[in-house]
Amino acid sequence: MPRLYMALVHYPVVNRKGEVIASALTNLDLHDIARAAKTFGVQAYFVVTPLDDQRIFAGRIVAHWTTGPGAELVPDRRRALELVRVTGSIEEVIDAIAGIEGERPLVVATCARPQPAAIDCAALRATVAGGRPCLLVFGTAWGLAPEAIAGADRVLLPIAGAADYNHLAVRSAAAIVLDRLLGERN
Amino acid sequence: MPRLYMALVHYPVVNRKGEVIASALTNLDLHDIARAAKTFGVQAYFVVTPLDDQRIFAGRIVAHWTTGPGAELVPDRRRALELVRVTGSIEEVIDAIAGIEGERPLVVATCARPQPAAIDCAALRATVAGGRPCLLVFGTAWGLAPEAIAGADRVLLPIAGAADYNHLAVRSAAAIVLDRLLGERN
Predict the structure, then answer these.
(1) Does the domain made of B4-182 have the CATH classification 2.30.30.100?
(2) Domain boundaries, chain A
(3) What is the pTM of this model?
(4) What is the ipTM metric for this complex?
(5) If you measure CA to CA, which chain A residue comes closest to B176?
(6) pLDDT digits (tens, 9 = 90+) for B74-97
(7) Which residues of chain A lie closer than 8 angstroms to B174, CB-CB?
(8) Residue A127 and residue A123: Cα distance in Å, rounded?
């Protein structure tokens, strides 16, 4: 199994004006990204927010589908949402992975804007295949704040589609990146 | 530009028990898939439902973001949702594309379960690159009904991830397939 982990960050991210904010959780971000993570064999999916009420809300959604009525109704959803770990900060995520893996993961930020010295998915695919623990970090709202990008070890190149439009939902971007890193080419 | 079109079908699809149903529209299906379609240069994104109230609902969402308050607030969202065409049946979609392209598109169904004689994304990528008009058909709920799959010219192989889990959200599956068909490998 790949030693790949994911984080969906709600703070620090930027809003439309570029201001650093804490964004609100979205139910479908939990579901869609957990299902994609399970599909591609990701080890754990960390949902990061420093806000207590948002962590309680996330915990309630996860409990509904993993131990509550949803678990029996849709077992496939249970298996996906069991990957979710609700966490207060990116640093806590890194510590949790280090605790599991016995070493600090390579932290790879994603960004829709090109960053200096970004790496491509093929390079990261090789790193993951080589067995190194990696943490893939996605931002909600208008993306990760500059401090979160600066704190990463690497930044992934943006997903390139048609020339002039680059506004994928984070749910879509996460699915595409997982496919590029772990999908079988059929 | 690729002559690729997409349809998201709400009827005929199956529910958890395999019964043929008309599913309800989901707001984020419109947004996420329209944004992915725009990112990868898809010509139009057809939302298919035979239910009048659902077509009115879809039209209202699209109008909000293309000509209403949302258009000015988030112009990037306007550009994506301008791709949406609300349509009553798959046949109407095919007729509409034939009207635009002057020829019937190759109709390619998608399905999470392996189908006989399914084609892979690499083959379809070559067909699209060769300039043939193609319609990619996605099902909501538990997927396209057998009659919709049987009516297609081709069926795409399921997306393969880790061995035993195959329950991507349609929004995630659509994003991955578009990337495989049209994305630049970077």
Answers:
(1) no
(2) 4-182
(3) 0.96
(4) 0.95
(5) A176
(6) 889 999 999 999 999 999 999 999
(7) 172
(8) 6
